[in-house]
Amino acid sequence: MTLLAATTLAMVAMAGAAAAQDQRRDISRVAPEIVRKTVPPLAAYTDELLFADVWARPGLSPRDRSFVTVSALVAGGHAAQMRAHFMRALDNGVTPSELGETITHLAFYAGWPNAMSAVAVARDVFAERGIGGDAVAASAAAPLPVDGAQERARAASVDANVRPTTPALADYTDRVLFADLWLRPELAPRDRSLVTVAALIAGGKAEQLRFHLGRAMDAGMTRDEVAEAVTHLAFYTGWPNAMSAVPVLKAVFDDRPAAASQTD
């Protein structure tokens, strides 16, 4: 190798290293200072993997990622992490009404205590943002329309599998959950399904997942979006919960037309 060639290669290598260092400096420092000082590797993963990589992936919109994350936090009762993500959700286009409705919906799918714990955080976030009661008031719009065929199939399943053993639970399922909650217009059906799927995965409820994954895809979620939501949830609910959801996803995908897997 000539001296000129060696010098050129060295300069290219130095330029590449400098560019990589500049790119590294450009990564937003999201991890709190307490994490940076106490557990530096976790801070590095938070900045460089979770927010600079996972949140930047194109498979889900930032708004969808916020719905998924907020749902995982509420379902897990992680109040200490809620404030930052409620703020991020508002920045990503989730409206105050949608955030409140997500918490309301999750009372049924993650339990009243978890939803109630989220209310105080939402109150403080709304106060800090100057969001008043009008922005979170219930909509005056009519309930959403019912898909007759889907509802008959769901009701038949409840009658066969739930009502003989727990008739009161079957009654609440039909009368409150699906004839009221799921028809509230404050969340679009696709978004309501998305937060439900996220809460079920967060709670390790794989046995309930198949029905709600199918409902999510009927409401417009693509195979790619569902898969990306599960990938995102690995970071917020842990790998075991995400991995436990994968066989259910495969079964649902295998049952559906190939066209449903394509992103619009």
Model description:
By secondary structure, the chain is mainly α. The protein contains 14 helices and no strands. Mean pLDDT is 90; it is low at 3-25 and 260-264.
Observed structural traits:
264 residues; mainly alpha; 0% strand
Taken from the alpha-carbon principal axes, the silhouette is: globular
Question: N-to-C terminal Cα separation, in Å?
Answer: 52 Å
- Give the SSE order as H and E letters: HHHHHHHHHHHHHH
* Low confidence ranges: 3-25, 260-264
How many strand units?
A: 0
Helix content: over 70%
What is the overall number of helices? 14
Question: What class, by secondary structure content?
Answer: mainly alpha
Strand content: under 5%
Give the overall average pLDDT: 90
**Oligomerization state:** single chain
Radius of gyration (Å): 22 Å
- Major sheet summary line: none
